[in-house]
Amino acid sequence: MSTGEPLRIVDFSTHLSGPLASHLLAELGADVIKVEHPIQGDGNRGNEPKFHGVSDLHVALNSGTRSISISTRSEHWAEVTGALTGWSDAVIVGSRPSDAARRGLDYASLLKSNSKLVYCLVSGFGLTGPWADFKAHGQTMDALAGRVDIEWVDGQPKTKKGWRSAGAPLAGVFGAMGVLAGVTRRDRGGGPQFVHASIWDSAMWWNWRDVNSLANTQEPWHEYQSLGSRYAMYSTSDERALLLCPLERVFWQKFCDLASLSDEYRERGNWEHSMDFGYDDEAPVIAAAVAARSLNEWVTELTKAEIPFAPILTLEEAMNSEHAEATGLLRGTMLPEGRARISSSPVGIYQDQEDAESPAVEDLSSPPDLGAHNKEILGLLGLNGLQGVDLSGGLK
Known about the structure:
By secondary structure, the chain is α/β, with parallel strands linked by helices. It has helices at residues 17-27, 56-62, 77-87, 97-102, 107-111, 140-143, 167-190, 199-206, 208-217, 249-259, 263-266, 282-290, 295-305, 315-319, 322-327, 353-357, 374-380; strands at 8-11, 31-36, 50-51, 54-55, 66-69, 90-94, 118-123, 150-153, 156-159, 193-198, 232-235, 241-244, 309-311, 330-335, 338-343.
């Protein structure tokens, strides 16, 4: 890949993890071609809810990409996938290794078309172990990683309201990170690279603090609600939750002055390790002080005093905040019935720091119709003879 050219990614994956990986790379400037089933696409095109008549996941994961549709049943499957692989810097495949091999998308097969390939496999449960051949679906990886919160309703377990999976999106993040690391290693003389990210391992990693603690002490990591009086939430006079964090001596003494706490509290603390999490008898005193003022009053005073704190916002409050607007939390993409807004990647690449401090978040190109770029991509690959050829393999 010459300097200045975008990274070339071919995404053979479906549903969430692999498409999220390629989407993140597209947001960072990669040229992404998605290879999709001629009928279902990548599995994200029919989901609810709809944004301006278009599936939320299709908008979120496929904006900024190009689409070619071809069936594994097509007599031209190997020819097209080989040409795509030869064009690419990296390919993303989401499946069990055995399924990838059946479709001719395993590492060894694709290396024949590109000896410098970076190959990223996103699997459900890894490449070895008794669960490696389990079918990956929805919550299953999180369930086997101790990550599904349940509640019992009429004697039956239900996924707790508000729960969101960790493994599937994290595997996409780690897959994208692995692709970038693989390209760097290859371009420094390392040859072709096999990158692997497991959804189950990603879900387990999300619990890294508990995993590490259980592995070494047989106890889970501590609960935030038991950290102490100086790292705790309190209710304001307008019954809003306020997180206070005056753990260091300078912050604690500033807070005592602000809250008019006596010198008995102001001078109390063991600062040998720089932080003191407080004492049980302080909590009622702090609670009474916080309850005397509204949230807005505390935000003003704590900000002025430069004491660590945070009001507990709802998701809606956070996404509609001035801060979200300033940092470019959302970016747009045009749909046939209107403009949709979707989450931006939290990673930005800029020429200068000043650009990063005033990010101009441009719209992504519209999520492509299924197979919208067949003719264009076949021409790009030098397969002009296949333009107009039915690549569906007889699927209806």
